[in-house]
Amino acid sequence: MLDKVAVTVHDLRMTYPSTKPVHALKGVSIDIRQGELLLIMGPSGSGKSTLLSIVGGLLTPTAGSVVVLGTEITRLGRNELARFRLRSFGYVFQGFNLFNAMTGAENVELAYNVRGIRGRRARKASRDALAQLGLEEQANRPARELSGGEKQRVAIARALAGDPCAILADEPTSQLDTENGAIVTNILSDLARKRGTTVVITSHDDRIRRAAERVVLLDDGRL
Amino acid sequence: MALAGVVFAVTLLTVQVALFTGFSNSTTLPIAESSADVWVSAPEMIYFEGTLPIDYGTVAKIRAVPGVARAEAMSLGIARWRSPHDELALGRIIGFDPRGTLFNPGGANRATLDLLQKPYAFAVDATQLHILDLRAGQSGVIGSLPAHLAYVTRGTQPIVSATFFYTSLETANAYTPSALSFFSPPGSAPPPLEETDPIMYVMVKAQSPADSAQLAAAIQRSVPHVRALTRDQMLAATRDYWVKRTGIGFILSLIALMGAFVGVVIVGQILYTSINEHFQEYGTLKAIGVSDGYLYGVIALQATCMAVIGYVLSLALTFAVRGVAAERGVDILITPGGALLVLAAALVICISAGMIAMQRVVRSDPALVFRA
Ligand SMILES: Nc1ncnc2c1ncn2[C@@H]1O[C@H](COP(=O)(O)OP(=O)(O)OP(=O)(O)O)[C@@H](O)[C@H]1O
Ligand SMILES: [Mg+2]
């Protein structure tokens, strides 16, 4: 089971068109196994976010392919790709990206709603997800009042709505203190180990390195 | 704040539409005031005030047409008014039979209506008193004859018309310049109308109002040199004249259109700002993978709420403006149709503005979410 390949990245190249074109990825190939926690490290500007965006179906590469569970997502059209993201991926952001006016529970509920799960079922699923991350108390507070660590845990609960095959997290701990960073890291590594969810993280954070099964180093667009 | 803008825009539109409706309604007031089913006039008639005289004798001929329950005359003349303080004004004299039942401006009771049977007595709309420089109980002069204010009506004066003086047919005939030559010395009552005296309309009550179209046709067949229109045709002819043939209808619709345009701009700006404020949140939804339709749906819902709340508040505001305008004789009329029209316009304005503003999110790069 653990040896099954979830994501195959082949010779990925990304050039950002601009007056002076930026070659952010210069031929990246990697297999990511199902249930693996992969950490992508590298200096600033090395192309970590770019790689994560392409793997997560948010960005179309200049060349190369990404195959997720048999689907070559780099060939999908705009709308198909959006549907694929909704079905297969959960995202965790550096800046949490919660809806600040909504409560934590509503944020998670919304993620169920957009996947067609509504009403009481969505409310229950949202409560359960938050409870599993130790956030029963915070569920009914507006997101803007939560601490950074609480926000990121709500964001993880949100990313898990719809039971994605992979969670993609871009610098998930860089805005958190040591303690909260550790909590979030533990949750992400538990997801990989206990749920079998593929987790791809980019980070500078050495503490994540200890939790990761595999660490790859990206430097100037190459692994 | 956003709501204030929507309320402003929708109020603008509501007032414009209501002004237009009020205007178009006001032009036909004298016809609406009458309970006649059929209006008979000279064949040249274009609209209520734009017609040529017919003989008073026509009334008797029309009474003889089968199916006619009642026929009463109405005359229309020009009044040169001089106030008690020698202020001049031009008006129109509407002569009718105060003992009749087919015309009663402002719906006065019998006793009040009887006041017009006195020689040289007239009624006038309350909004005209300051134009006439006149107060209750005072008298002025029309032409060279005395004119006593008998009572005051409400809601009878078209905005577009000169002041209407409502008098008996006899008094109206005496005031009309062509009749001056026959005039007997001051103090005596004006004589009753002769068959050849000019009137403008014969108002006809049908025995069965449902058949007024047939009755109009029958009158036109049996009485020579007249035109007989049903009440609805008469209303339409007069309304169309003012709304379509004069520039006023055009100007008012233009202003209403500009109100709608300003509305689109304001609401668009508001929604655009609101979407920009929440750009990251919408961008996150987009990254998660929701469809464009979902994003448009979210903004459409928000825009609909804005439109409906803005609409309700602006209706309230318009009713407030209405009271102020009414004192000045300007009718701001909110009909169910007009109200529905504005609601539809408000919805279209808000939703289309929202869609346009949402384009920015829909077109944005989903990978933006990973760029802090
Ligand atoms: N939309 C864009 N247009 C042009 N250039 C871009 C764009 N996005 C990223 N780049 C460039 O591509 C290169 C890789 O950027 P990327 O964000 O992937 O790096 P990163 O490793 O995530 O850096 P950091 O650790 O600072 O987040 C950088 O040189 C960056 O300036
Ligand atoms: Mg980055």
Describe the structure.
- The complex is a heterodimer of chains A (223) and B (372).
- By secondary structure, chain A is α/β, with parallel strands linked by helices.
- Chain A has helices at 48-55, 78-88, 104-113, 119-132, 148-160, 178-195, 206-211, and strands at 5-16, 22-33, 37-41, 63-68, 71-72, 89-92, 166-170, 198-202, 214-217.
- In chain A, the strands form 2 sheets. In chain A, strands 6-7-8-3-9 form a 5-stranded parallel β-sheet.
- By secondary structure, chain B is of the alpha+beta class.
- Chain B folds into 2 domains: 2-25 and 247-371; 29-245, no CATH class.
- Chain B is built from 12 helices and 11 strands.
- In chain B, the strands form 2 sheets. In chain B, strands 1, 3, 4, 5, 6, 7, 8, 10 and 11 form a 9-stranded mixed β-sheet that branches. Chain B has a two-stranded antiparallel ribbon with strand order 2-9.
- The two termini of chain B are 29 Å apart.
- In chain B, 44% of the residues are buried.
- The mean pLDDT of chain B is 86.
- The interface between A and B is medium-sized, with 26 and 19 residues.
- Magnesium ion binds next to α1 of chain A.
- Adenosine-5'-triphosphate is lined by residues 16, 18, 22, 24, 42, 44-50 of chain A.
